[in-house]
Amino acid sequence: MGYESIALKAVNHVGWLEYRKAPVNAVDPPMVLEIIAGLKQLSADPDVRVIVLASALEKYFCVGADLKVFDGITPEGMGHWASACHEMVFLVRQAPKPVLAAIHGTAVGGGLELTLHCDLRFAATDARLGQPEIDINFIPPVGATQALVRLLGRPGAIRYLYDGKLVSAQDALRMGLVDALHPPESLRAEVQAYAETLAQKPPEALEAIRKSITEGMDLPFRDGLRIEKQWVVRLAGTRNFREGVTAFLAKRKPKWSWE
């Protein structure tokens, strides 16, 4: 499939999905559909072991929705928009492999929201992040209300969305919006390097970790343990588990399989 608003590339088993809708990555319905297709493609690609969300534009990660899309939109039309946005959320949260984000420049609205569902967010030190939807009498429609309360707690999430202001990368790190900061010129290399370390780990364990935590965090503790047990049982039957135990006992490095 050819893409116009995004770009896909894979480097050393790390698949990059980059927003590239010039001039500022303003999101519209065709771009959402491309992101959905791109996420499906990278998730299904056996050569891609880690996914990274990023932007190909120099100064902009994303400026949110192209508001021309909302001019005259009906409640029914907005429902379709929200459903498409939520499909992106589910694809990230349910992906069978790690999903990271590399955030730089101006990062607001839906494109930034999608990163809230990634496992880890790396940001450039000059990034500016925000959710200004309140300024048009709206709320973030890409799952931010649910992700933020889990990342920041209820007061932090409410204050962040009430204010609608852009925050510095340093404040974002302090708040818990991002997990690490890097100089702009080295951000991509740092994320690539970390992703490559993950790409060398056993794939079933990576999937088990992200899904046990992502799915279990919304459940009562006992129900979360059931998910954990399901993965424990499933992993015990894998070739990589047997290899891991054998390698440990033999005091050698394991030879993982990605088949």
Give a short synopsis of this structure.
The chain has nine helices and eleven strands. The protein has 259 residues and is α/β, with parallel strands linked by helices.
Architecture overview:
By secondary structure, this protein is an alpha/beta fold. It folds into 2 domains: 6-199, 2-enoyl-CoA Hydratase, Chain A, domain 1, CATH 3.90.226; 203-250, Lyase 2-enoyl-coa Hydratase, Chain  A, domain 2. It is built from 9 helices and 11 strands. It has helices at residues 29-44, 75-93, 109-115, 144-163, 169-175, 187-199, 203-216, 221-236, 239-250; strands at 6-11, 14-19, 26-27, 50-55, 60-65, 99-103, 106-108, 120-124, 128-130, 167-168, 180-182. Strands 1-2-4-6-8-11 form a 6-stranded mixed sheet, sandwiched between helices. Strands 3-5-7-9-10 form a 5-stranded mixed sheet. It is globular and about 65 Å long. The two termini are 24 Å apart. The relative contact order is 0.11. The model has no long low-confidence stretch (mean pLDDT 97).
Structural key phrases:
six-stranded mixed beta sheet, Lyase 2-enoyl-coa Hydratase, Chain  A, domain 2, 2-enoyl-CoA Hydratase, Chain A, domain 1, 9 helices, alpha/beta, 11 strands, five-stranded mixed beta sheet, 48% helix, 259 residues, globular
